[in-house]
Design brief:
Order of helices and strands: EEEEHEEHHEEEHEHEHEH
Number of strands: 12
Helix content: 25-40%
Radius of gyration: 21 Å
Strand content: 15-25%
Distance between the termini: 51 Å
């Protein structure tokens, strides 16, 4: 009996963290009678006087949000990380270890209008978002070891406010996911004298099985080891290590790529496609300022939960929580569906 990837279960290794994912494509044939989400449609008004992220509206702490007309950044009113906090006491017990954790949390509004999302914004408006990401990164990266830019889009992904925005958390330490990548990327470079993601892009460009978008500056693929159904990775093709390495033209092409990708997502199931996304690049701060970053390649990851339709999502429970990650349709099938989804005209466009 010959192995067929789209029919037979198998495991795939994620070289970025050393973990395996179980691929079970035949599970797409099972009937679904479980929970269904409410389709996420963009039904927000342009301005909501009760929404604290709208210009001129009072936030819960009494501060008035500025009347901004492009991007707008402010310190999170309810931050997870603070700078001035005491450190936990040292412990000589290996089973009860704690360490200091300091940082800063900011909210960044993409646009003053609440009824917009990245796929419905113009390329120039997205370019303004990218420029602000880089301004924030420049300010924060000199002090903090890790600056995490991330967007949670949609209530399904825990977004508590429907206004177009992201968050920027800066940490005095290297968090778990970046630390794992740091170790794996460094080890690969020590062995091969080339960055892992550079080699990975070459293989993907040769195989052309999982490519979603390709242009001179950026490559979007469904990773061979993807966990989420329509997970994608957006990778710099110019050996950039951090987001503030980007040239003017690379920033413009990034804006074009983000609009194409998020439009494909929305068009796939004709809904405001939920996801969590974030940027990963070389660590920052005084500790890493003079360390080699040759093993790093700047990239963003998109984790969308929808599986079968606008209402049926992938749940990471049971076996996924207790044993290992598992996905249903193959990354190649997901990439084909995203390639076939229109990335130029949004389904809501007149």
């Amino acid at each position: 009996m010959q192995f067929v990837a789209t029919e037979h279960q198998h495991r795939r290794l994620n070289p970025l963290n050393g973990q395996w994912v179980l691929v079970c494509p035949h599970r797409m044939q099972r009937p679904w009678s479980g929970q269904e989400e409410k389709p996420q449609l963009n039904e927000q008004p342009e301005f909501d006087p009760t929404n604290p992220l709208c210009p001129g509206v009072k936030r819960p702490n009494g501060i008035i949000t500025e009347r901004y007309d492009s991007t707008y950044v402010f310190d999170n009113d309810f931050p997870a990380l603070l700078e001035q906090v005491p450190s936990p006491p040292a412990s000589d017990d290996p089973l009860f270890q704690a360490a200091p954790a300091r940082g800063n949390c900011r909210v960044m509004c993409f646009h003053p209008k609440s009824n917009l999302t990245l796929p419905t914004m113009s390329v120039m408006e997205i370019r303004a978002v990218i420029d602000e990401w880089i301004r924030q990164f420049n300010e924060l990266s000199g002090k903090y070891a890790w600056v995490q830019i991330f967007e949670n889009k949609g209530a399904t992904m825990g977004c508590s406010n429907p206004h177009p925005h992201c968050q920027i958390w800066s940490c005095s330490f290297l968090p778990t996911e970046p630390q794992q990548k740091q170790e794996r990327l460094r080890a690969y470079y020590a062995t091969h004298d080339r960055p892992m993601l550079g080699d990975y892009m070459e293989r993907e460009l040769q195989r052309k099985e999982r490519i979603v978008i390709e242009n001179p500056d950026w490559l979007v693929v469904v990773p061979y080891w993807a966990i989420w159904p329509f997970e994608t990775m957006l990778i710099s093709r110019n050996n950039n290590k951090r987001i503030n390495d980007l040239t003017d033209n690379q920033r413009h092409n990034l804006a074009v790529t983000i609009k194409q990708l998020t439009t494909k997502y929305d068009n796939l199931f004709k809904c405001s496609f939920p996801y969590s996304m974030g940027w990963h690049g070389a660590p920052t701060g005084p500790e890493h300022a003079h360390a080699s970053s040759a093993h790093w390649t700047l990239h963003a990851i998109y984790y969308p939960p929808l599986l079968r339709s606008a209402t049926v999502r992938k749940f990471m429970v049971g076996f996924e929580l207790l044993a290992m990650a598992q996905r249903d349709l193959t990354p190649e099938q997901a990439a084909q569906r995203l390639r076939d989804s229109d990335g130029t005209k949004h389904y809501l466009s007149k």
